[in-house]
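Entry for the shared binder. Reason: the reviewer on the internal report wants the predicted structure included alongside the sequence.
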Amino acid sequence: MKDNVLKSLFFENTILKIIALAFAIALWFLVIGEKKVEVSFRIPLELKNLPKDMMIIGESVREIEVTILGSKKLLQKLSPAQLMASVDLSDTHVGINNLRIAHSDIKAPKALEIINVNPSSILVHLEPTAKEQETGK
Protein backbone atom coordinates (compact mmCIF):
# COMPACT_ATOMS: atom_id res chain seq x y z
CA MET A 1 0.00 0.00 0.00
CA LYS A 2 2.83 2.40 0.82
CA ASP A 3 4.34 1.77 -2.61
CA ASN A 4 0.98 2.52 -4.18
CA VAL A 5 0.76 5.93 -2.45
CA LEU A 6 4.29 6.91 -3.48
CA LYS A 7 3.69 5.73 -7.03
CA SER A 8 0.49 7.78 -7.32
CA LEU A 9 2.20 10.81 -5.74
CA PHE A 10 4.88 10.93 -8.40
CA PHE A 11 3.34 9.42 -11.51
CA GLU A 12 -0.30 10.55 -11.59
CA ASN A 13 -1.09 13.84 -13.35
CA THR A 14 2.48 14.02 -14.62
CA ILE A 15 1.73 16.64 -17.28
CA LEU A 16 0.10 18.98 -14.75
CA LYS A 17 3.03 18.58 -12.37
CA ILE A 18 5.54 19.40 -15.13
CA ILE A 19 3.54 22.49 -16.13
CA ALA A 20 3.34 23.65 -12.47
CA LEU A 21 7.10 23.15 -12.09
CA ALA A 22 7.75 25.16 -15.28
CA PHE A 23 5.57 28.03 -13.99
CA ALA A 24 7.35 27.98 -10.62
CA ILE A 25 10.77 28.16 -12.29
CA ALA A 26 9.67 30.97 -14.63
CA LEU A 27 8.24 32.95 -11.71
CA TRP A 28 11.42 32.42 -9.71
CA PHE A 29 13.55 33.79 -12.58
CA LEU A 30 11.20 36.73 -12.97
CA VAL A 31 11.46 37.74 -9.31
CA ILE A 32 15.18 37.05 -8.89
CA GLY A 33 16.09 38.55 -12.24
CA GLU A 34 14.42 41.90 -11.48
CA LYS A 35 17.14 44.52 -11.53
CA LYS A 36 17.49 47.17 -8.89
CA VAL A 37 18.17 50.71 -10.04
CA GLU A 38 18.99 54.02 -8.41
CA VAL A 39 16.93 57.14 -9.07
CA SER A 40 17.35 60.63 -7.63
CA PHE A 41 14.47 62.96 -6.80
CA ARG A 42 14.29 66.54 -5.56
CA ILE A 43 11.70 66.63 -2.82
CA PRO A 44 10.43 69.33 -0.45
CA LEU A 45 11.86 69.57 3.07
CA GLU A 46 9.37 70.38 5.80
CA LEU A 47 10.57 72.06 8.99
CA LYS A 48 8.14 70.97 11.69
CA ASN A 49 7.60 71.64 15.41
CA LEU A 50 9.13 75.11 15.41
CA PRO A 51 8.90 76.39 19.01
CA LYS A 52 6.15 79.04 19.29
CA ASP A 53 8.51 81.62 20.78
CA MET A 54 11.00 81.33 17.88
CA MET A 55 11.16 82.29 14.23
CA ILE A 56 13.43 81.29 11.38
CA ILE A 57 15.81 84.04 10.26
CA GLY A 58 16.98 84.12 6.65
CA GLU A 59 16.33 81.43 4.11
CA SER A 60 16.74 77.77 4.93
CA VAL A 61 16.97 74.82 2.59
CA ARG A 62 13.49 73.94 1.32
CA GLU A 63 14.38 71.12 -1.04
CA ILE A 64 16.74 68.14 -0.85
CA GLU A 65 17.93 65.51 -3.29
CA VAL A 66 17.22 61.91 -2.34
CA THR A 67 18.69 58.85 -4.08
CA ILE A 68 16.52 55.76 -3.87
CA LEU A 69 17.27 52.11 -4.67
CA GLY A 70 14.49 49.81 -5.80
CA SER A 71 13.10 47.71 -8.58
CA LYS A 72 12.88 49.38 -11.97
CA LYS A 73 9.18 48.59 -12.21
CA LEU A 74 8.36 50.18 -8.84
CA LEU A 75 10.52 53.26 -9.45
CA GLN A 76 8.83 53.93 -12.81
CA LYS A 77 5.51 54.26 -10.96
CA LEU A 78 6.97 56.46 -8.20
CA SER A 79 6.41 60.21 -8.28
CA PRO A 80 8.15 62.83 -6.11
CA ALA A 81 4.75 63.58 -4.53
CA GLN A 82 4.92 60.17 -2.82
CA LEU A 83 8.13 61.20 -1.03
CA MET A 84 8.33 63.59 1.90
CA ALA A 85 11.18 64.75 4.12
CA SER A 86 10.75 66.50 7.44
CA VAL A 87 13.09 67.72 10.16
CA ASP A 88 11.97 68.19 13.76
CA LEU A 89 12.83 71.60 15.25
CA SER A 90 11.47 70.92 18.75
CA ASP A 91 14.95 70.50 20.30
CA THR A 92 16.50 73.58 18.70
CA HIS A 93 17.83 76.70 20.43
CA VAL A 94 18.32 80.40 19.69
CA GLY A 95 21.10 80.91 17.17
CA ILE A 96 22.38 78.72 14.37
CA ASN A 97 21.38 75.06 14.57
CA ASN A 98 23.02 72.32 12.50
CA LEU A 99 20.31 69.74 11.83
CA ARG A 100 21.12 66.32 10.40
CA ILE A 101 18.73 64.84 7.84
CA ALA A 102 18.60 61.12 8.53
CA HIS A 103 17.25 58.47 6.16
CA SER A 104 14.47 57.90 8.71
CA ASP A 105 13.33 61.53 8.21
CA ILE A 106 12.24 60.64 4.67
CA LYS A 107 8.87 59.01 4.10
CA ALA A 108 8.94 56.60 1.14
CA PRO A 109 7.16 53.37 0.15
CA LYS A 110 8.46 50.39 2.16
CA ALA A 111 9.83 48.45 -0.82
CA LEU A 112 12.32 51.26 -1.56
CA GLU A 113 15.62 51.97 0.15
CA ILE A 114 16.97 55.49 0.75
CA ILE A 115 20.69 55.35 -0.04
CA ASN A 116 21.71 59.01 -0.13
CA VAL A 117 20.45 62.39 1.05
CA ASN A 118 21.98 65.64 -0.20
CA PRO A 119 22.51 67.80 1.76
CA SER A 120 22.78 65.50 4.76
CA SER A 121 22.51 68.43 7.17
CA ILE A 122 21.16 71.98 7.09
CA LEU A 123 21.75 75.16 9.06
CA VAL A 124 18.70 76.87 10.54
CA HIS A 125 19.06 80.27 12.24
CA LEU A 126 16.46 80.83 14.96
CA GLU A 127 15.73 83.97 16.97
CA PRO A 128 13.03 84.81 19.51
CA THR A 129 9.81 86.19 18.02
CA ALA A 130 9.24 89.97 18.08
CA LYS A 131 6.95 89.67 21.13
CA GLU A 132 9.63 87.79 23.08
CA GLN A 133 12.25 90.43 22.18
CA GLU A 134 9.99 93.31 23.32
CA THR A 135 9.17 91.70 26.69
CA GLY A 136 12.83 90.91 27.26
CA LYS A 137 13.84 94.63 27.05
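Summary line for the report: The two ends are 99 Å apart (CA to CA).
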